[in-house]
Design goal:
heterodimer; A: 445 residues; alpha/beta; seven-stranded mixed sheet; 15 strands; globular; B: 479 residues; three-stranded antiparallel sheet
């Protein structure tokens, strides 16, 4: 199957204009000894055959499993309007808005996205999105190095372990140091975090709600960081922002997070988007693309990519980062998601997640031998101590069609029996009750 | 057009949140509770649908306009691969990382594995990882792999990465992100990195050389194997920027030429949509002895034919949460499978034919700084038009009025007033002829009526925008 429209006549006419005898002649600049040694791929197929093949693959992709898993990626409902609007070809098959006059659609949408992120996080300036939540945390850490001209980043151990791995990797080549501070049970060890801050510290990175589901007050931590002219970076779960105090309210200097839960499908790992927002005074240190408002020669409002002097195509190796794309389409989905819920709907959605998780906490916590490990508040995730290896329990429940949670042993070696359970608005009371029954069965029979 | 926030009416709602089937919980403690609701717009669903539908109509796109944006490879995105890629929307990636979870997600794991094999064959590399989330992310990952290689050999003094001055800005930026200092080598008069200056720059402190071939001018560098050999002799590794892979499918494989690491922009070569600036996907391939440094985790195929996820303990760690931008990868996998061997070869042949046709027809009126057979794109200069006060940007804006997305302008940096045209293989001669006519018309107008070009565009919702004002105001969200 090919999508090349030119007919043999077209090709003949074009070759005549070029003055070449054949298409192959156009590849003459490539010396014979550099030609491909192999190109061993099967022949193409028809659309019908392709869809048959792809449906076969899709038949085995866990679609019949009831998920109580998160790990930063969440199974939230997606209003129908999002797929319809985001798949409009004018958004979908456009490129980066390098020519603003014929890209006002993308540019205005990204400006609205930036506004939405600022309002969710309680910050003043947002970029037009980053690759994903993990790389967003890493970019925020790099941003803090640039702002403070220091080399130490304190990483709270209750930050998503996958994200911490990415941060450590990003810092590795830069002779910057990531200092891990182990959590106290399921919460950040605020006393140790504060004691770790010194005049070498660029930033402290925490997460709310954290990987165990706990929600904490970081105001004192922010104050302590600021006393040492260090920054506070808070990674947050955007759906929680309908109910939980925002990074801005906590005194954060940079807010980041994974945007997937805002209208993006879980899709086995992506595409998602990361968000990053900050105080206006740090705007020149924000990585990636930023859309700004301006006017044309007649005074009409319009939008352009702005502050590009920070970017790789102008600054090359002196750029604030190497990023040359955002996740525009995913960010658009996030924007439409937030807009379709609106002020009240967004709050209601967060409340619903919270209520369902609180209910799950009560029924799962009541199962014999099961204990709740979070001491303080949680949003829609919580951590249970099981009387058995959590990995084994999860494996047995998968056979019954339920992904009961994320076992912590692989991330925290001393937490082999701990399980993080996630409950979104999509989980029904019946599903939660069934999970409690399955726990009882697997643990005690 | 009004912002969605300006259309908000207090009390109006769009999507309804389901009623709760559980008791209302006790309130969160005040110290961790949000003060005020998020100030999101309050609009009905129809208002929302009209707003974003009308916004979309203020965009040019491949499906609505010819988009010959050089180096970005804006080809038609086949619709069946869209359908295919969408089949995996509800598959949670964490399933693959749960004990015993891999058996539930064999389909998507098979796609990751098979796509990696396809890309390894296409590029001539030993192994590929799909983890990087965009081309530039792949560049950074590739350079991190190179750094790990030198470190494992105890070769700690290498602190430089060489890039040609015509390279994509991401190359030096990515190398800097991985902790290297940059050495820039100028372009020789024939359009490639100056071989003598490169030899002089090469020493035992160089970790890697980053190149694309065909280069940023759309030209194939006949000295490419020699450059690789010189780099290797000096103990450096060679990095291939796969941005221009669309030109050489089945013709040249970077691995055969002597490159050690490559990234591939799936959204360029394998026809996944650009989405207004992402998501992309930037897998990297490496030759044999670098495989152990690839990021964790890896998808492997067991002897019984099933797929599993394994840690990759010697690797550079994790560069994204899971397996990369999977839904994009699935589209690229579908595209490669759909076109097959012959289809992919045809892609490159027709892309190169189209670019050379464009070049042949336009070179009478526009300066062609490097006049030789090009690959998938060609670079003109508007320097002749500048004599009449018309710049590349003026030509670009006039094209918008005539329904064409402009080519890339002012890149590469080593061509003054650059106009970089990449038609791709999916455009017909008739579409290109129409574009060529308008380009020739602009050239005539530059002589006869330059003012009209300065005024363009006049058909768009806004005219030329004041970029300086935007940078000065820094108005990046509405109050």
């Amino acid at each position: 199957m090919g999508y090349c429209p030119n007919t043999p006549d077209d090709i003949r006419d074009m070759l005549a204009v070029i003055g070449a005898a054949s298409v192959e002649e156009l590849f003459a600049p490539i010396p014979a000894e550099l030609r491909a040694k192999s190109f061993d791929l099967p022949p193409g197929m028809s659309e019908l055959e392709l869809m048959r093949l792809m449906r076969e693959k899709a038949a085995s992709c866990g679609a019949d499993i009831t998920p109580f898993i998160g790990g930063g990626i969440y199974d939230h409902f997606i209003p129908a309007a999002i797929d319809h609007l985001a798949s409009r070809a004018e958004f979908y098959t456009a490129y980066t808005p390098y020519q603003p006059e014929c890209a006002q659609g993308t540019l205005q949408a990204l400006y609205e996205y930036q506004t939405t992120i600022c309002r969710l996080t309680g910050m003043e300036a947002s970029n037009a999105s980053l690759y994903d939540g993990g790389t967003a945390v890493a970019e925020a850490a790099l941003m803090s190095l640039r702002i403070t001209d220091r080399h130490k980043v304190i990483l709270d151990g209750s930050v998503n372990p996958l994200h911490r791995e990415i941060v450590t990797g990003y810092l590795h080549g830069l002779s910057a140091e990531a200092v891990d501070v182990a959590p106290d049970g399921c919460a950040s060890d605020l006393a140790r975090l504060m004691a770790s801050i010194d005049d070498e510290t660029a930033a402290v990175v925490v997460q709310s709600p954290n990987f165990f589901g706990s929600v904490q007050d970081f105001r004192e931590l922010a104050q302590k960081a600021h006393d040492h002219e260090a920054l506070l970076i808070v990674s947050c779960y955007p759906i929680a922002m309908g109910l939980v105090a925002s990074p801005g309210e906590m005194g954060a200097d940079i807010a980041v997070g994974e945007g997937q839960s805002l209208g993006n499908h879980v899709s086995f790992g992506g595409p998602y988007f990361g968000f990053i927002a900050t105080r206006k005074r740090f705007i020149r240190n924000l990585p990636g693309r930023i859309v700004g408002e301006t006017i044309d020669h007649q005074g009409r409002r319009g939008f352009v990519l702005t502050l590009q002097a920070r970017e790789q195509h102008i600054k090359r190796h002196k750029a604030t980062s190497n990023i040359c794309s955002n996740q525009s389409l995913c960010a658009l989905r996030g924007l439409i998601f937030c807009t379709s819920l609106g002020r009240k709907g967004f709050e209601d959605l967060a409340q619903l997640n919270y209520d369902k998780a609180q209910y799950a906490k009560s029924v799962l916590g009541a199962v014999r031998g099961v204990n709740l490990l979070n001491r303080g508040a949680t949003f829609n995730e919580f951590t249970l101590a099981l009387p058995k290896d959590a990995g084994e329990v999860v494996q047995r429940l998968l056979d019954k069609g339920v992904a009961a949670g994320v076992p912590l042993g692989q991330y925290y070696p001393d937490m082999e029996q701990a399980l993080v359970v996630t409950v979104t608005e999509k989980r029904t009371k019946d599903e939660i009750d069934r999970l409690a029954g399955l726990f009882e069965e697997v643990l005690w029979s | 057009m009004e912002l969605i926030f300006e259309k908000s009416v207090s009390g109006r709602t769009g999507v309804r949140v389901p009623l709760s089937d559980v008791p209302k919980a006790a309130s969160l403690p005040d110290a961790v509770r949000r003060g005020e609701p998020v100030r999101l717009p309050e609009v009905g669903e129809l208002d929302l649908v009209r707003h974003y539908t009308n916004l979309s109509r203020r965009n040019f796109s491949v499906d609505t306009n010819f988009y010959p944006l050089g180096s970005c490879t804006m080809k038609y995105n086949t619709k069946v691969t869209e359908n295919a890629g969408g089949l995996f929307a509800s598959c949670h990636p964490m399933l693959a990382l749960l004990p015993g979870g891999d058996k539930l997600v064999q389909g998507p794991l098979a796609i990751v594995y098979e796509l990696e094999r396809q890309l390894a064959e296409i590029t001539g590399m030993e192994e590929v990882t799909t983890q990087p989330l965009a081309g530039a992310h792949g560049e950074m990952t590739g350079i991190m792999v190179i750094a790990a290689y030198h470190k494992a050999r105890g070769d700690q003094k290498r602190k430089y990465v060489i890039v040609p001055d015509s390279s994509h800005g991401t190359n030096p930026a990515s190398a800097a992100m991985a902790g290297y200092e940059i050495v820039t080598v100028p372009t020789a008069p024939y359009g490639d990195m100056d071989l003598d200056l490169f030899r002089q720059a090469m020493n035992d402190e160089v970790a890697a050389v980053m190149l694309t071939c065909p280069n940023t001018l759309g030209l194939f560098n006949p000295h490419i194997a020699e450059i690789c050999a010189i780099a290797h002799e000096g103990g450096a590794l060679t990095y291939y920027d796969g941005a221009n892979l669309n030109a050489i499918l089945g013709k040249v494989r970077p691995g055969d030429v002597g490159f050690d690491v490559i990234h591939v922009n799936l959204h360029k070569t394998f026809g996944t949509p650009h989405g207004g600036g992402g998501p992309g996907s930037g897998p990297i391939g490496v030759r044999g002895d670098l495989v152990r440094f690839l990021p964790t985790p890896r998808v492997v195929r067991r002897e019984d034919g099933s797929y599993a996820v394994e840690d990759h303990p010697e690797g550079i760690g994790r560069v994204s949460d899971f397996f990369g931008n999977f839904a994009i990868m699935a589209r690229a996998y579908a595209y490669i499978t759909l076109l097959g061997r012959e289809g992919l070869i045809e892609v490159s042949e027709q892309a190169v034919l189209n670019a050379n046709y464009m070049m042949a027809r336009l070179k009478e009126e526009y300066d062609l700084p490097f006049d030789q057979t090009c690959m998938h794109e060609c670079v003109f200069s508007a320097s002749r038009q500048v004599q009449n006060g018309v710049h590349a940007i003026d030509v670009a804006k006039y094209l918008i009025d005539r329904g064409f997305h402009p080519p890339t302008v002012y890149f590469p940096l080593n061509v003054k007033e650059a106009i970089m045209i990449e038609p791709t293989e999916t455009e017909s001669k008739q579409t290109m002829d129409a574009f060529i006519e308008v380009m020739l018309e602009a050239a005539r107008m530059a002589k006869d009526d330059p003012e009209r070009l300065h005024e363009a565009p006049v058909t768009t919702p806004v005219g030329r925008l004041d970029e300086t004002r935007a940078a000065r105001m820094q108005q990046v969200c509405c109050e």
